[in-house]
Structure prediction request, 85 residues.
Amino acid sequence: MNLNEEIAPKKVEEYQRKKAELQEEIIELQAEIENLKTKRKAIERHITVSHLPEEQRFSRLSTRYPTFISGCWDLAGWNPPITTG
Prediction:
């Protein structure tokens, strides 16, 4: 590929300056990403009941538990035998 006209030095300098600024911004953003990743890894993923405030702790299982199990059996196409007595 041949150029028909010469490249203006001012345009080359402007291009190189913009490229350098963008490269610096990329480096800064990559450092920020690494910093945020480190912070995210430090956050606990699971909370134990002992870490919850007293008013948010579970005191007993929900009374809807058997209904949930029955619903799962219904979804699976299996109904357990109902016994009375």
User: Anything to note?
Assistant: The mean pLDDT is 77.
